[in-house]
Amino acid sequence: MPAPTTRASRLIPAAHDAVWNALMDPEILVQWLPPGDMTGQMHAFDGRVGGGFEMSLYYPKGETQQLGKTAEREDRTRVRFAAIKPGRQVVWAVVFDTDDSALKGEMTITVSLEAAPGGTRVTLLSENLPPGLRPADNKEGSKESLKKLAGWFGG
Questions:
Q1: Is the CB of residue 53 less than 8 Å from the CB of residue 46?
Q2: CA dihedral defined by 64, 147, 76, 6, rounded to 10 degrees?
Q3: 129 lies in a domain?
Q4: Can you tell me whether residue 35 is helix, strand or coil?
Q5: How many domains does the chain have?
């Protein structure tokens, strides 16, 4: 049986070039990528094919429902830029830093941009989700990240 796939899409009220910059600027990426009330810390960034980034996502204090994948309140990921089509698409190959075998393996997130009336449509396609990552949680997290991205541009 193939690994689960999720898709989330949102119109971002910003020019195409500005949205692309938000994908490739680590100081902006760390602000919108952590879903919901999570916060982020960028540890390393190399914005070329074969490069990538290492980032920690932190659950808010007082969160009792979700345990971190890396530490009690932390999800740390290593992301490799598998492909970059400037201005159109970036493919992230994502690996969780975890001891949990159900969360091991590489998943891909393809981020696509498309010009649209009123801004830029951004789509996150997550494929090959590890068995320990619930598709519904992944989809909801993707929607929350896109909501933050829209908010970053005032939407």
A1: yes
A2: 100
A3: yes
A4: coil
A5: 1
